[in-house]
Amino acid sequence: MEVFKAVNAGDEELEEIRRRKLMELQQKILQEQEAVEAQKKAEAQRQALLRRILTPEARQRLANLKIVKPEFAAQLENQLIYIAQQGMTKIPIDDGQLKEILRRLQTSKRDIQIRRI
To answer: What is the domain partition of the chain in residue ranges?
Structure first.
């Protein structure tokens, strides 16, 4: 009889551990889903801002740039949003203005040349 009680108590503990692990896993999944939703919402707001800031042609140029250099395009998007919010440029930015911004960013890069002697 004592052995049966000990086995029964062990089963209850095991079941409680399983329940806790399941709840933790469910909470983790829920948090991940919320994070993904927040990220999607932020990206949608960002794209809405860019639609107001850029003309369709400029948006297309930015989309092309994003395919080739995604990190650079993300930084450029941040800068465009910033300068538009600060009133540092006329809105909407057309393709020519975007080209000029890209040209200025390109000239600010430093070229490193290695010469062998």
So the answer is: 2-107
pLDDT for 18 beyond 90:
yes
For domain 2-107, the CATH class is mainly alpha
The CA angle 105-80-50, to the nearest 5 degrees, is: 135
As a whole number of angstroms, the distance between CA 33 and CA 30 comes to 5
Containing 94, the helix (H) or strand (E) segment is none
pLDDT at residue 9, rounded to an integer? 67
Q: Residue 62 in contact with residue 92, Cβ under 8 Å?
A: no
Asked whether 46 and 85 are in contact (CB, 8 A), the reply is: no
Check residue 25 and give its pLDDT. 97
Cβ–Cβ < 8 Å for 57, 95: yes
CA distances from 80 to 25, 48, 53 (A): 40, 13, 8
Q: Which residues contact 89 (CB under 8 A, 6 or more apart)?
A: 83, 97
Residue type, 77: E
